[in-house]
Structure prediction request, 286 residues.
Amino acid sequence: MSQPTFREVVSVLDLAYPPALAADWDAVGPVCGDLDATTCSVLFAVDPVMEVVDEALLAQVDLIVTHHPLFLAGVHSVAATTAKGKIVQTLISHGIGLFCAHTNADHANPGVSDALAAKLGVADLRPLVPTLVATTFGEPATGTGRVGELPETLTLEQFAESVAAALPATKHGVRVAGDLQTPVRTVAVCGGAGDGFLADAALAADVYVTSDLRHHRALEHLAEGGCALIDIAHWAGEWPWLEQAAGALVAGLGSQGSSVRTIVSQLPTDPWTARVLPAPSQGSTS
Ligand SMILES: [Zn+2]
Prediction:
């Protein structure tokens, strides 16, 4: 089998995660790199941070595919005096391309939330917030988040434990809001920051798994009788997508007679690197 160009990799990934599905504020697609360059190996990671670039250098890959964009706001300089400029300079000087599939991968079917749901054993998936309904031509419904069913009813505590076991460990851990004995079967999930969809989850599910849930929104949701909440690390919730995207690339290239080596980054790039609990009090006499 031959090796594809970066351009051919882009066309396969664009088919799996159509750029037209991206939010209008988003910036998806190639960030840097020569589209005519031969691509023998690709590293998949959630965040385009320096630690991931170092991982790419060590693994000697030609391309990094990330979920999060490197740039979303206007950029006037990529001088290596800034963190992002240094990333661009390092990538270009080593001939490594960067490509990102962000909200297009969130909205595609299968996409980020399908990968998360599958990892948690949630099946029979439908969009939590549909943007395009399924057609009779076999096109899958797209949208944000997914709702599906567990194979059996669990308590919230049992399900939260299975979430913690299924996802890569982080210092953030798995936080739960709700009575641990609540029975749960219908599960809503949303990879990434999903507190904008709390009302949708409240209508659709027994429990909602997402990231970056904020104090007031979570409190108000619960006070209104909303479903139980499971707050997972943003990185951990989107990490299952990496394997899905790597598989889509290999399958798409394979049908064209080419192949690449794929590596899924195991590096937790969550910003939270420690969790500090109060030290047990010493010398207590009571
Ligand atoms: Zn995200």
Summary: The CA atoms of residues 12 and 249 lie 6 Å apart. The chain is about 30% helix and 25% strand.
